[in-house]
Amino acid sequence: MIRFFENHSLKPHNTFNIEAKSRFYFEFTEISDLKHFITSSSYLSENKILIVGEGSNILFLSDFDGLVIHPNISGMRQVKEDSRNIWIETGAGEIWNEFVKYCVGLQLGGIENLSLIPGTVGAAPVQNIGAYGQEVANVIERVKGFDFEKNEDFEYSNRECFFGYRDSIFKHTLRNRFIITSVVFKLSKFPEFRLDYGNLKEKVNQYGGVNLENIKCAINEIRMSKLPDVKELGSAGSFFKNPVVNIQLAEKIEAKFGKIPVYNTGDGKVKIAAGWLVEQCGWKGFRKGDVGVHGKQALVLLNYGNATGKEIFVLSEKIKQTVFNKFGIELEREVNCV
Ligand code: EPU
User: What is the DSSP letter of 333?
Assistant: First the structure.
């Protein structure tokens, strides 16, 4: 099935709830629909394109004068099994959190800590979603899709995806050139639990002991206590990445400002919690008009109602500037600004 619109509102397609329009909008449920669209019309060759899943990592700064493509392919099917693992191929349009619930329900481990992350399965590899000690890159076997430049189906193995911290080849060379249609995940029948984040272990025990279901519930509780529900308040999760800096710089900051939250990356560098940097600059809980900074997690920018993408962007620039002035660290946006 396809849906095609002109001058289509993108408000329902971005979790920041920004009003923006796309000149053309195309949604499909079957790969054959996409191929038919390509061969029977010139929209794709004549317009710049933008691929959007649930729009949970995007900020529209203006209307999009091109073609927005939304892959809405569903389906989760087991494609392989051995004594330790099960491989599941999942359509790009499936909601990520539904996939997590499905795997936990089947007693398959590997993504339980990624519970409640907004977005679609097709978007998960693009920014290599991660939380509470797990990253989706660890369970991705292959990413399948269609290459607009080569005009053919293509597959990338895990290694070929060049996954990094909130990063992959799909954000760079293949950006808006390759549309992900499904992802093959390798999940474990005997999962190694990741409980080293904060008080996660304690929370899991409160739910009755260590198993996948209880980890999922504990993660959901932690997320709900810190992060806004995108159905109620416009946001796109962490707006900035946690910056990776030399240990020397972190030590200098520590000497001046006291203990800072860091994660060791093991190569003479550390990742500093950007939320802490932003909070230290006094932004936590800030609000002006309809734009603001979340009161429980300073890394999350908010649209309280009718903010424009530009207003949120301007706020993010101010935050970047103050963090740079105070700490000499240049924050990098995680959110894709269009
Ligand atoms: N912190 C502050 N003030 C704040 C926020 C955080 O001081 O306003 C400090 C606290 O010390 C806290 C530490 O930073 O203990 C870490 O905060 P948190 O556990 O909330 O995690 P984060 O580093 O801010 C990252 C991811 C999140 C992910 C969490 C949990 C990035 C950019 N963000 O946030 O991912 O859920 O870890 O693993 O890596 C996302 O990508 O959209 C996202 C929400």
Answer: B
Write the pLDDT tens digit of every residue in 230-264. 889 999 999 999 999 999 999 999 999 999 999 88
Please state, in angstroms and rounded to a whole number, the distance separating the CA atoms of residues 287 and 275.
16
Active site residue 238: yes
- pLDDT, one tens digit per residue, over 116-146 is 999 999 999 999 999 999 999 999 999 999 9
**Cα 240 to Cα 29, 200, 275, 280, 337, distances in angstroms:** 32, 24, 9, 15, 12
Sequence-distant (≥ 6) Cβ neighbours of residue 270 within 8 angstroms: 244, 245, 247, 250, 262, 263, 264
Whole-number Å distance, alpha carbon 51 to ligand 1 midpoint, is: 27
pTM, to two decimals? 0.96
At 88, the pLDDT band (50, 70, 90 cuts) reads: very high
Report the nearest atom of ligand 1 relative to the CA of 165.
39
The per-residue pLDDT for 47 is: 96
What per-residue confidence (pLDDT) applies to 264? 80
User: What's the gap between Cα 215 and its chain centre?
Assistant: 20
- What is the distance between the alpha carbons of residues 261 and 272, in angstroms, rounded to a whole number? 6
Q: Write down all domains in the chain, each with its CATH number in brackets.
A: 2-71 (3.30.43.10), 76-225 (3.30.465.10), 244-337 (3.90.78.10)
Alpha helices by DSSP H, listed for the chain, are 31-40, 43-46, 96-105, 200-206, 212-226, 247-257, 274-280, 309-327
For ligand 1, the distance from its centroid to the CA atom of residue 131, given in whole angstroms, is: 9
